[in-house]
UniProtKB/TrEMBL annotation:
HAMAP family: G6PD (MF_00966). It comes from Cerasibacillus quisquiliarum. InterPro entries: G6P_DH, G6P_DH_AS, G6P_DH_C, G6P_DH_NAD-bd, NAD(P)-bd_dom_sf. Belongs to the glucose-6-phosphate dehydrogenase family. Residues 193-489 form the Glucose-6-phosphate dehydrogenase C-terminal domain. GO terms for molecular function: glucose-6-phosphate dehydrogenase activity; NADP binding. Catalyzes the oxidation of glucose 6-phosphate to 6-phosphogluconolactone. Keywords: Carbohydrate metabolism, Glucose metabolism, NADP, Oxidoreductase. This is Glucose-6-phosphate 1-dehydrogenase. It comes from the Bacteria. Substrate binds at residues 181, 185, 219, 238, 343, 348. It catalyses: D-glucose 6-phosphate + NADP(+) = 6-phospho-D-glucono-1,5-lactone + NADPH + H(+). The gene is zwf. One of its GO terms (cellular component) is cytosol.
Length: 494
């Protein structure tokens, strides 16, 4: 968290007619307005090629927020702040027309000259738009100008570096807000608080007391309409390089000296630097890849990845990744961080399990009835909460101790709604708080790590498909932990 400013701004959304804008951005802006977190000094320009006028655009925005509207609530004041400008980002004249509208609205809404440009467009346009915003005078020297960039930020280190150079020719690092929506999730933000505000965890958070940490983000859906993008990307690039490694960094970083953006980022960067790089010829010791076959999810038969579209036939793209990552520093030497993510798995869930080492001597359990390790479970989604697994006195005949759970569920409190990730991140950007956005060094180091895994995979053709839809991935993902004497903790009811 960094010193916060007032949320006064003109927001320009490139890609305003697209899926992300409709499904995530407009409902998030609506919630921020309804909660009074942004007010009359914020207006929004939607920019895309569709030949819409302001009224047609407002109608689409209305449709996108219809699920959020109460029956007796009028959306008119909210919608009146939305304007549309037809823009082809490849056409220079578009930027000049956009500039005129920006100037008009800035005066009307008294936005102090603050401008947020949100790039909700295909990544190949990111560099071009950033440079043209600069070249056509859309950056404002009176207020602040910020550029929000969606993922993916590159396809590998080389392309990310090229994109970063292009963007940096027009914007300074502190003006660039690279989105990783996992950093906007309530329980991901809670990792730091749980660690740094609780002595019982803070003091034990190291290799003396923790045996391993497991991070899972599983999805039950397949690739759906995004198959074209996904087939060129795969789970390692789509989920591991960003979301999974970001959660790992928050779990592993040293306490920052303050919560200022630079301090938090600098601790995360140190984690990325300490991550043991996997040599391509050793990739199979550390990483497992998978692709789903036909299977059953929620009682419904589903087709294999390769059957989802004719273009996917014969594909070698991984839809599942499990990995073991070591952080070679004093705190974490010898502690494996296991990560696991994939499509068409048994459940949609994201969960972190911190497994503590057992007591050195066991008074209450015998050989057949082993002591359960203490677990701290951070439920990221769908439930949001924390569960602590302890051992306590048992009343059952023949046993002296048994595992019990202490749970706190955030989203089960009546009337409590966790803000959507995009809601928080949009507000953070307006407030000038870049803590929950990724710094270039984090992006570069995580690409370097993933590139060597992918390089190792390229050397050997995978034997795909290798897991059934509706399961928790290929057998090799389970063996990865078993050979270290661990197992994956379940993602349900834990
Ligand atoms: N959808 C999602 O859930 C997520 C998306 N993202 C990222 O967000 C970005 C956008 O994704 P998504 O919304 O799904 O993509 P869509 O394909 O749904 O939308 C693309 C948008 O770009 C506009 N566009 C395309 N070409 C031009 C052009 N030459 N000039 C101006 N506008 C143009 C399209 O509008 P028009 O045709 O009217 O010009 C449309 O508004 C991508 O980087 C994606 O990776 C990230 C996470 C999740
Ligand atoms: O960034 C992405 O994330 C989603 C999963 O996000 P979640 O918030 O629903 O867990 C994933 O489906 C998508 O492939 C990926 O690009």
């Amino acid at each position: 968290m960094t010193k916060q400013q007032e949320p006064r701004a003109l927001i320009v959304i490139f890609g305003a007619t697209g899926d992300l804008a409709m499904r995530k951005l407009y409902p998030s802006i609506f919630n921020l307005c309804r909660n009074g977190q942004i007010d009359e000094n914020v207006a929004i320009i939607g920019a895309a090629r569709k030949p819409w006028n302001h009224m047609e655009f407002r109608q689409r925005v209305l449709e996108s927020i219809s699920n959020n509207l109460e029956s007796d609530e009028s959306p008119n004041a909210f919608l009146s702040r939305f304007y549309y400008q037809q823009v082809d980002v490849t056409d220079e004249a578009s930027y000049k027309e956009l500039h005129h509208l920006v100037i008009d609205l800035e005066e009307k809404y008294d936005t102090d000259g603050n401008r947020m440009f949100y790039l909700a467009m295909a990544p190949e346009f990111f560099g071009m738009i950033a440079q043209r915003i600069d070249r056509f005078g859309l950056k404002n020297s009176d207020g602040w100008t910020r550029l929000v960039i969606e993922k993916p930020f590159g396809h590998d280190l080389a392309s990310a570096q090229k994109l970063n150079n292009e963007v940096r020719e027009a914007f300074d690092e502190d003006q660039i807000y690279r989105i990783d929506h996992y950093l906007g999730k309530e329980m991901v933000q809670n990792i730091e608080v749980i660690r740094f505000a609780n002595g019982i965890f803070g003091h034990l958070w190291n290799n003396q007391f923790i045996s391993n940490i497991q991070i899972t983000s599983s999805e039950s859906l397949g690739v759906e309409e995004r198959f074209h993008f996904y087939n060129q990307s795969g789970a390692a690039r789509d989920m591991v390089q960003n979301h999974m490694l970001q959660m790992l960094a928050l779990l592993a970083m040293e306490p920052p000296i303050t919560l200022d953006t630079d301090e938090v980022r600098s601790e995360k960067i140190k984690v990325f630097r300490a991550m043991r790089r996997i040599k391509p010829d050793k990739v199979d010791e550390y990483f497992v890849r998978g692709q789903y076959d036909r299977g059953e999810i929620n009682g419904k038969q589903v087709v294999s990845y390769q059957e989802e579209h004719e273009d996917l036939k014969g594909s070698n793209t991984e839809t599942f990744v499990a990995g073991k990552i070591y952080i070679d520093n004093y705190r974490w030497a010898g502690v494996p961080f296991y990560i696991r993510t994939g499509k068409r798995m048994a459940e949609k869930a994201a969960k972190i399990v911190v497994e503590f080492k057992n007591m050195p001597m066991n008074l209450y359990y015998d050989e057949k009835d082993k002591q359960q390790p203490n677990l701290l479970v951070i439920n990221v989604q769908p439930e949001e909460g924390v569960t602590l697994h302890l051992n306590a006195k048992s009343n059952k005949p023949g046993t002296q101790a048994e595992p019990i759970k202490l749970s706190y569920l955030y989203n089960h409190k009546s009337g409590m709604r966790s803000p959507e990730a995009y809601e928080k991140l949009l507000l953070d950007c307006m407030l000038g708080d870049a803590t929950n956005f990724t710094h270039w060094d984090e992006v570069a180091l995580s690409w370097a790590f993933i590139d060597s895994v992918i390089e190792g995979w390229k050397r050997k053709k995978p034997n795909f498909p290798n897991y059934k839809a509706g399961t928790m991935g290929p057998d090799a993902a389970h063996e990865l932990l078993e050979k270290d004497g661990f197992h994956w903790w379940p993602i349900k009811d834990i």
